[in-house]
Amino acid sequence: MKKIKIIFASRGSAAKTIACYIAKKLQVNDDDVFNVSAHELNSNDIIFEHLILVCPTYGDEELEEGMENFLIKSDWSKHIGLTFSAVEMGLYRGYDSPLLGAAKIIQLFLNKQGLMQSTNTLSLDSVPSVDFSILEKWLTNNFRNHEK
Ligand SMILES: Cc1cc2nc3c(=O)[nH]c(=O)nc-3n(C[C@H](O)[C@H](O)[C@H](O)COP(=O)(O)O)c2cc1C
């Protein structure tokens, strides 16, 4: 099984709830879940084989600031060839297109750094409440071997 770490950015509390839910399901230790909005972090500080990034959308194609800083300020050269998953959150019910979310930016940026997205992007409705049924399905489909 791949060593998974989870990064989340947040202004409220939804991303943390989602990151912790994923961690519990995939048996990732609490110590391996990082809040990049609260603490400055460089990807060099963490060792992983697969990185899950959980990020709310704040405006069309806008990342939460902590995630943006984490992506830009990190040196990704040690992680070339490793894999990641992007979980974008926001208001999806009623939106015509989910294509303007945070994940697209994460994906483009990390691809440029030489990392590969190995799961489909999860566009997770988190307003007014998190759609845990979609999250469950995504985890089952993409991380079957990791789940408890
Ligand atoms: C000022 C503001 C702007 C937002 N912009 C968007 C947006 O453009 N698209 C979207 O899907 N959701 C948008 N949202 C919804 C947030 O992504 C959503 O509330 C998310 O769950 C917040 O996560 P957090 O509590 O971890 O910060 C916005 C929310 C706020 C407060």
Description:
By secondary structure, the chain is an alpha/beta fold. It has one domain (4-142): 3-Layer(aba) Sandwich (Rossmann fold). It has helices at residues 14-26, 65-73, 102-112, 132-142, and strands at residues 4-8, 33-35, 50-56, 83-90, 116-117, 122-125. Strands 1, 2, 3, 4, 5 and 6 form a six-stranded parallel sheet that branches. Strand 1 (4-8), helix 1 (14-26) and strand 2 (33-35) form a beta-alpha-beta unit. The structure holds flavin mononucleotide (FMN). The site of flavin mononucleotide has 16 residues, from helix 1 and strand 4. The site of flavin mononucleotide (FMN) has 16 residues, from helix 1 and strand 4.
